[in-house]
Write a structure and sequence with these properties.
Layout (H helix, E strand, L loop, with lengths): L2 H19 L6 H21 L10 H27 L1
Length: 86
């Protein structure tokens, strides 16, 4: 998978994950970072449970990366909210 395709996948997945968790995007750079890290997390988790990870720029890979992005953002917001309430 080319770097450009991986960045595009990250942008799409980061935007979708941000919309699901926070209701708004993180900006282009933020969405790319969240999506790329989410793709890595999602790929590792899916491989751990016996499924394929990110396989290219397709709907399945967008699903995997979005799932990882949602997990990443949920953990991030849980930690951030816990620190702000203390």
């Amino acid at each position: 998978m080319s770097i450009v395709a991986f960045l595009l996948l990250g942008l799409i997945a980061g935007f979708l994950g941000s919309k699901i968790v926070a209701g708004s995007g993180q900006g282009i750079l933020g969405d790319v970072i969240v999506g790329v890290v989410g793709a890595l997390i999602g790929g590792l988790l899916f491989n751990f449970f016996g499924a394929h990870g990110v396989t290219g720029l397709n709907l399945y890979s967008i699903f995997v990366a979005t799932a990882g992005s949602v997990l990443l953002l949920a953990v991030y917001y849980a930690i951030r909210n816990r620190e702000s309430s203390a």
